[in-house]
Amino acid sequence: MSEKLVTVARFSDCIQAELARLLLEGEGITAFVMGQHGSAISVGVPGIADVQLQTPESQADEAMKILEAGRQGEESEQDWDEDVGNEQDEELEQE
Predict the structure, then answer these.
(1) Is the separation of the CB atoms in 4 and 56 below 8 Å?
(2) CB-based contact 32:54 (threshold 8 Å)
(3) What DSSP designation does 1 have?
(4) I need a labelling partner for 82 at 20 to 30 A (CA). Which of 4, 47, 71, 93 fits?
């Protein structure tokens, strides 16, 4: 008998859901994207698509930790990119 799947994250964009699935699978977590076909219809319409990322129940806690760490990494990369852009602007102004 197969294990119950649980939703560990929801997305309004199937591309983001697929990227998250790849992240989890890279960490050895089995993951499935559900609802991606419906999201193609509603591209550009906020709040309509409900794309779910699901894992087996036994891997759900670990999956959520990995996804959260990935989100925090994205935020720090954005901060870094903003800092680099500001430094480059300052260098141009000095010239």
Answers:
(1) yes
(2) yes
(3) -
(4) 47
CATH number of residue 27's parent domain? 3.30.70
Domain count, the chain: 1
Cβ-defined contacts of 11-14 (< 8 Å, 24+): 11/49, 11/51, 11/52, 11/53, 12/39, 12/46, 12/47, 12/48, 12/49, 12/50, 12/51, 13/39, 13/49, 13/51, 14/39, 14/40, 14/49, 14/51
CA dihedral 26, 69, 14, 31 (to 10 degrees): 40
- For the stretch 7-24, pLDDT in tens is 999 998 888 999 999 999
CA–CA distance, 87 with 31 (Å, rounded to integer): 40
- Higher-scoring residue by pLDDT: 45, 56: 56
| Domain interval for residue 18 | 5-94
